[in-house]
Amino acid sequence: MSIVDVEIGLRQQRGALDMQDIVESAARFLEDAPAIEIIRWAAATFGDRLCLTASMSDALMIDLVSRVKPGVDVLFIDTGYHFAETIGTRDAVQQVYDVNVINVQPSRTVAEQERDLGPRLFGRNPDLCCYLRKVEPLNRALEPYLAWVSGIRRDEATTRAGIKVVEWDAKRQMVKVNPIARWTQDDVDNYMADNGVLINPLHYDNYPSIGCAPCTRQVAPGEDPRSGRWAGMGKTECGIHT
């Protein structure tokens, strides 16, 4: 019997408490492990109930995970507001890597949202817009899985400084795996250069952190890399990782 079968039974009998114990043990054991070993643990533990989420800012995590688990499901949230370069990167990923890209869409198109809630919701209520176009669609898409892999890092923002390499996603009642949580930007840059990883061309035009087009601006030299996200709105996260 696999750990996945055990986990399903535990959920039915006692909820997710025992799974949280497994997660805590894994987080301690894997804290200093290389990213590829963390991914191997996740793939061996969850099998086809493991997926990867990708913003298509680059294909670093896609490259890493597909080396361990070819054909892995990659969830991409197509908000309807992406840069053309981001959509192009998604399309290129499908051609270059051995992965199954799943295009996740909000329940309403942009036109339907504007009809129901008015135009430019992203400017009037960015938290609600992010929830409707990112968080809720992802929550739906994650339902078939027991664990998901993300590419967030501790050095990206103060809101991410305390993330673990393996953690319990209490909001979604599933496991979240952050294999490169300990990586620095230099680690990222070196890996991508050494392995020829696909990268969103916007990075070469002073967009170090890429989100939806209406809420992302270019960043000047010396500015915080994430300062171009929701600039002037007092917002630092879309809600997916909080």
Q: Span from first to last CA? A: 33 Å
Tell me about the largest β-sheet.
Answer: 6 strands, mixed
Rounded to an integer, what's the Rg over CA atoms?
A: 18 Å
Walk across the major sheet and give the strand order.
Answer: 3-2-1-4-6-5
How would you describe this protein?
This protein is α/β, with parallel strands linked by helices and 242 residues long. Helix content is 41%, strand content 11%. The chain contains nine helices and six strands. A six-stranded mixed beta sheet has the order 3-2-1-4-6-5. The radius of gyration is 18 Å and the shape is globular. Residues 6-15 have low confidence and may be disordered.
List descriptors.
242 residues, alpha/beta, 6-stranded mixed β-sheet, 9 helices, 41% helix, adenylyl-sulfate reductase (thioredoxin) activity, Adenosine 5'-phosphosulfate reductase, Rossmann-like_a/b/a_fold
Write a compact overview of the structure shown.
By secondary structure, this protein is α/β, with parallel strands linked by helices. It has helices at residues 3-14, 17-30, 35-46, 60-68, 84-96, 110-117, 121-124, 126-142, 185-195; strands at 50-53, 72-77, 99-104, 147-149, 166-169, 174-177.
